[in-house]
Amino acid sequence: MDIHNIDTVSFDREANALVIIDQTLLPGEVRLLPLTDRDSIFEAIRYLRVRGAPAIGAAAAVGLAVLAARRAPSSLEALKEDVKEDSAFLASARPTAVNLFWALARMEKALDHDFSSVEEALEALRSEAESIIAEDVETCRRIGENGLTLLRGGMGVLTHCNAGKLATIKYGTATAPMYLALERGMKLRIYADETRPLLQGARLTAYELSAAGADVTLQCDDMAASAMAEGLIDIVITGADRIAANGDAANKIGTLGLAVLAKHYGIPFYIAAPFSTIDLATPDGSGIKIEQRDASEVTELWYARRMAPEGVKVRNPAFDVTDHSLITGIITERGVARPDYLTSLRTLAEE
Ligand code: MRU
User: Per-residue confidence at 1, pLDDT binned at 50, 70, 90?
Assistant: First the structure.
């Protein structure tokens, strides 16, 4: 199965199911997972079967539409209560990516109409979830067009984690300019950090880019500095899980280190993200909740056997916040925002 012919998240109307690619099995196996109950949808988000900010949002939106119909509410009031409850439950799956809360809020808002029947309201939920999916494809393509203006043939591009097709529906955010470059015959040398501890760079980014025929080289996270020192990297582009009003950007743990390195070596550092990742209600990065995950992800997951002493203290923050002063620009579907972000992000948001 060609991963690029399958949507990362989709809605099977006939089966009334959320369908995801189970990313925990990649790159070894491409398996579609239909999900129809609340606990398995929550589990899929929590344990990163579906992950990446926009994909989490889309999955939660479809999940909410699926669950609402399954509950077969007897009145519009009951439907709204059910949706509120399921929305709060799914929102507790992961704390950092704002797209999750954005998509759930959008679904709840879709019920703010005078419907003449429960079925009409359920249909509004279904079509809102489908719009979120369709818009994501268009948004990422535009991010790609805007990002492509920063690239030239022969450049070395470094990315971290997976802000690719597997984190969205189709093009990805950080990878969108890379896919458009490939479409247009522009040759890039792409470097993918493996991204400890969950290896999204190795399992997902290196996989999807090489499946598309891109020139991608995988490296351990601690090799980024030497790649920069050797002059292999001309630009860094990563995704984001939440961008505060002042441009501080939360992304996968390790992104901050790359931004610091890029500054040292005079390499431009860009974040690529849709407006659904920009949280103007959060003034700066200190207000972004950083997810703390289980120690076993560091000590044993993805190792053939445990690689740390029993009982050792472990830190496992899933994200870090890159200070806006380290970010050269934020590539969005509406254009590339430049400092000062407080002004540029607001101006783009109002467009
Ligand atoms: O923990 P994950 O795999 O969900 O983290 C994903 C990232 O950090 C991505 O860079 C971010 O969500 C942007 S995805 C377009």
Answer: confident
